């Protein structure tokens, strides 16, 4: 993903359709198609801003690169970007969305433009930054030494802590629902994960990969890493666990009424 030019509207960061398409590895036509197909789900001011007329004229004056015969311009908020990632539903789109949330939509303190400082102040800043960097690295090293021994233990006790009663209950409800619906247990499990990703605004595959990476970095065995599943991801996150429990209960109740 190339460095994105920061664009703001109504005191929040936004992306143009072209920027969003480039980030997600797709085309502007695809972005526009998904929007038109699901237009009822998008709300102006929440998911996007549509600039026209004088508002667009003022925007062009502040952003010289948007010149020409553009008569309307869509600007997508973080929530709008999420809806587009959901429509595309590709690993590339979800990974890009998470990067956008971390690196673009989250406002960061602006860097000082050194060219505006005098040579003396530029030298002072560079000297100060160098000293501060050394001190920060020293402090970080000491902190890492204190934390490294507890990392494996924390992961073992937190990420992979299994609530056997909860898992047994979840599996029991899924098995019962599959029998009542006359379907396949794996298909119902897959559907439950899809519903969780939709409600929880997450991508379980990406989270699973990240969890396995953390385990590998902490020195976990290959067997432990290979045995890690999406259920471990869900169980390690209180919010996802609550949402998933509700989904399974709904599926179970729905199966009862299906007969």
Description:
By secondary structure, this protein is α+β, with helices and mostly antiparallel strands. It has 3 domains: 7-105, no CATH class; 114-156; 160-258, no CATH class. It is built from 12 helices and 4 strands; from the N terminus they run E-E-H-H-E-H-E-H-H-H-H-H-H-H-H-H. It has helices spanning 17-24, 28-37, 53-62, 78-88, 91-105, 119-158, 164-181, 185-200, 204-217, 222-226, 230-235, 238-258, and strands at residues 7-9, 12-16, 48-52, 72-76. Strands 1-2-4-3 form a 4-stranded antiparallel β-sheet. A hairpin with a 2-residue loop joins strand 1 (7-9) and strand 2. The protein is flat. The model is unreliable at 154-161 (pLDDT under 50).
Core attributes:
259 residues; alpha+beta; 4-stranded antiparallel β-sheet; 12 helices; 4 strands; 67% helix
Short description:
The protein is an alpha+beta fold. It is built from twelve helices and four strands. The longest helix is centred in the middle third of the chain and has 40 residues, at 119-158.
- What Rg, in angstroms, do the CA atoms define? 24 Å
Number of strands: 4
Based on the structure, what is the oligomeric state of the protein chains? single chain
Average of the residue pLDDT scores: 81
Counting DSSP H or I runs of 4 or more residues, the number of helices is 12
Q: Tell me about the largest β-sheet.
A: 4 strands, antiparallel
Low-confidence stretches: 154-161
Integer count of domains: 3
Q: What structural class should be given to the helix and strand makeup?
A: alpha+beta
Give the % helix: 55-70%
Broad shape: flat
Question: What is the beta-strand fraction?
Answer: 5-15%
Spatial gap, N to C terminus? 50 Å
> How are strands sequenced across the largest beta sheet?
1-2-4-3
